[in-house]
Design a protein that fits this description.
The chain is an all-beta fold. The chain contains no helices and 18 strands.
């Protein structure tokens, strides 16, 4: 286990982990067929960001906590060649300040096996636990614990410009705390 911690707080624009080409550079930092194991990402404006050329990435026992005034997991606007088979095994997304997914996740595929999504966006009035405003995106949860606080209006919301989005839950526990 190693911890990647931002001591400036989650209100800034710092990113915990960035995968893919960095905007404004000519360096192609392709992130393909890699495995990220056991980090804890804590206190960043955004926990995970996917840029161009980021796909077939396995996340093993990753914890993302206290991140996300900018979104906990997002992709850059206009991202291309990104998002195929992003898999999360026994990962935890907890106590983040915004919903787990954010904007620009077009044509991406997130698959979760085990783990939990707990109490994200509870400090954001009227923010949902899971939110994705994209198109042609697949979010698949297998045996995942999903729970929000009493202030979370919806556990999940999937919106977009009318194209095919899929959110699938298999053998999951979904709940919301009551006051």
């Amino acid at each position: 286990l190693f911890i990647i911690k931002n001591t400036l707080g989650a209100t800034n624009s710092a990113v915990g982990l960035y995968f893919g080409m960095i905007p404004g550079t000519s360096v192609n930092m392709q992130a393909e067929s890699i495995s990220v194991e056991h980090p804890e990402i804590k206190g960043f404006g955004t926990g995970l960001v996917f840029g161009d050329n980021a796909y077939i990435i396995d996340f093993q026992s990753v914890k993302i906590r206290e991140c996300g005034y900018s979104g906990t997991v997002i992709a850059r606007d206009g991202t291309t060649n990104t998002g195929e088979s992003l898999q999360f095994f026994a990962c935890v997304f907890a106590d983040n300040y915004s919903p787990v997914f954010g904007s620009y996740l077009q044509s991406m595929e997130f698959i979760f096996f085990g783990g939990s999504v707990d109490y994200n966006a509870v400090n954001s009035l009227n923010a949902n636990l899971l939110y994705c405003d994209a198109y042609s995106t697949r979010l698949i949860f297998n045996s995942v614990h999903l729970e929000g606080g009493a202030t979370v209006p919806k556990i999940f919301e999937l919106t977009g410009p009318g194209q095919a989005n899929v959110m699938e839950f298999n053998n999951c526990k979904i709940g919301r705390a009551h006051v």
